[in-house]
Design a protein that fits this description.
It contains 4 helices and 3 strands, in the order E-E-H-H-E-H-H. By secondary structure, the chain is α+β, with helices and mostly antiparallel strands. The chain has one domain: GIY-YIG endonuclease, CATH 3.40.1440. A 3-stranded antiparallel β-sheet has the order 2-1-3, with helices on both faces. Residues 4-19 have low confidence and may be disordered.
């Protein structure tokens, strides 16, 4: 059965996983909702994500709390790192989140 095996293109084995692609840097962000609550998420393009929230196409949580305003962002790196950082921040109490926002803006 010669010829049934697919040949790999040169360099195919050297492709980097998506998380290591320098164009796919992930960020953590916190938005303040109109009702005074905070929402934490991750995105590659924060401005586009905030626009999605404000057009009602973002997270279900923010849809009934519009408009939202970006109050904090952090460049995190790989997707897995961003997910872990998001979990850390979501586990914080409101006081600690507000401190994080305040300290980062100084």
């Amino acid at each position: 059965m010669s010829g049934s095996k697919k040949e790999k293109s040169p360099g195919a084995d050297q492709s980097a996983p998506m998380d290591r692609d320098p164009t796919s840097i992930w960020h953590l962000y916190i938005v303040a909702c109109a009702d005074g609550t905070l929402y934490t998420g991750i995105a590659k393009d924060i401005e586009a994500r905030v626009r999605q929230h404000n057009t009602g196409k973002g997270a279900r949580y923010t849809r009934g709390r519009l408009p939202v305003c970006l109050v904090h962002s952090e460049r995190v790196g790989a997707h897995g790192d961003a997910l872990r950082r998001e979990r850390q921040v979501k586990m914080m109490g409101l006081r600690d989140k507000r401190r994080l926002i305040r300290d980062a803006s100084q």
